[in-house]
Amino acid sequence: MRTSATWVSAFIFSALPAFGQEGTGPLSAIDWLSQSVTVPASEDSGGLPVVIDEPPVTGPGEALPLPVLTSALDAPSPDAAGLIAPAVSGLPRELWGPGLTRDIAERVTQSHAGDLPALRQLFLTMLLAEADPPVDADAGGALLQVRIDKLLALGALEQAAALIEAAGASSPDMFRRSFDVALLTGAEDRACEAMAKTPHLAPTVPARIFCLARSGDWDTAALTLHNSEALGEVDANQANLLARFLDPEAFDGEALPPPPNPVTPLDWKIYEAIGEPLPTEGLPIAFSYAEIGPHSGWKTQIEAAERLTRAGTIPPNVILGLYTARKPAASGGVWDRAQAFQDFDTAMQSGDLARISQTLPPAWARMQEAELEVPFAMLYGEALLDLPLQGEAAVIAFDAGLLSPHRDKAAGHVPAGDSSGLFLAGLARGNLSGLVAPNSLGRAIAAAFAGAAPTAEAQALLDDKRLGEALLVAIDNIGRGVEGDLRGVTEGLALLRRAGLEDMARRTALELMLLDRRG
Length: 519
Known about the structure:
By secondary structure, the protein is an all-alpha fold. The chain has helices spanning 11-14, 86-89, 101-110, 117-128, 142-154, 157-167, 172-184, 188-196, 205-214, 218-230, 236-246, 265-273, 298-311, 316-323, 334-350, 353-369, 373-385, 391-403, 407-410, 421-429, 440-449, 456-463, 467-482, 486-498, 502-514; strands at residues 37-38, 202-203. Helix 6 packs antiparallel against helix 7.
């Protein structure tokens, strides 16, 4: 394997472009958090909203930040915390302008982040950006929690953990999120140590038993379970599962209790510990982290890494290392992708132009199958542009170059006979003058680069200096376009350009033309 399965949350920096009703509870759709600590109703949570496994938001107006009842008026708001400075993100420190926490939180929670890698990267950047808090922000950190929950929902676990640390948030709610991130990234011992060293946190019975066992104190763990059963603090299925965790041999041959719904990270770790790991494919994407480490089988590792790479939350080098770790022992699906990737990578290392031309088309087809064209382009795009390829290989190299950070360079390598190549090159340069769009999508894109206006709602947000909210509208508009509403493409791209994100508009337009994300 060329790279360790460990990476830094700062990966996201390298891919950055230049550029409800009152009293209904916090705005959050994370219903799979572990019940690792309890929060007594009388306990002060530091002003942060208390969320205990609330169900997902189901309708408009039902998801509003919890009113903060107690907070120091002069205390700094955790909402200002971020990982990416304005000089790196290209976003102003006044990202949210005079916007209100409730409005911003609703837009962040309801945004689907888009199916295009460029828009996902923009959305992640906004969640992680250092920015002034909303004008009505207080010490409660309501927007911080919404941002963290969105990161968790997108599978950006390490980024979420780093944001919690940067904010210095130590409330029970923040601990629950840190604890689950640790469980899913293989750092459960560190999480248990942190729990033991934080006296104001009261661990729940499952978390206490889990951590006691992890520390080797099996006797105390067993006694805790016995007492908790007697007091009715755990239900029958939970008690059965914890008993198996402590003494799996005592249940040899007996049927497992059914997994809970929803499955929490703590549930998943316990099932894994008793030798019956639950498949993560049907679970939220955050659970994929639990299968990316060396303790999982190679096929499982690759599939988990593909999901996370597709989401844009881990660097392409991880999937490169996994695809090339060993020779596939079977065929079909993930094995075909690994084999095609290996054949191409070996050809690139050899420098043999004939082998590269032969292996590039099947490798590209397998990457399209897995929707990993952009990560592939980030790995090989520039190198391919430097090769004198011909025919189909030249067209693929051109497309990969346009999807890479080197799209300006790619614009000078239009393959002979590529009917849409000149239009794509014009998009890369941001100049479509005199060029004919090849299809209706191209015409919708061209309209945005010819001075079309964004929606009235978006323009009003820009006029009010609420740039962050306007960008969320642009992401959602373009998302409508991906689903077939081409007017949304025009309006969304026009908004990105009017907001000063010209490079992001070009990158998004190229992805719209080159990637099929319509399902």
